[in-house]
Amino acid sequence: MEIALNLYLLLFFVAGALLGLFTYPYRHLFSEGPNKSEPTQTTPSLSSRLLWLMVCTFLWPLLILTGLNSAWILAKRKRQAHSGKP
To answer: What is the pTM (predicted TM-score) of this model?
Structure first.
């Protein structure tokens, strides 16, 4: 029983860490919404990547929901642009 619980926790943290590793360039979709902020002139530091990794490791279910919301908003805007409606 204890091994199964440890396995579930390990899978939860690994899934969050993988999400953090793969979504770092797209993190604006999870926090600021579909509007991308101005890009900085400096290269991303290791500390910013580690911070994003830690946030994703523990909060990935919430980040998935906010990312889906941003994707829905972007798809809605694209449909409106193709149909010509404001």
So the answer is: 0.71
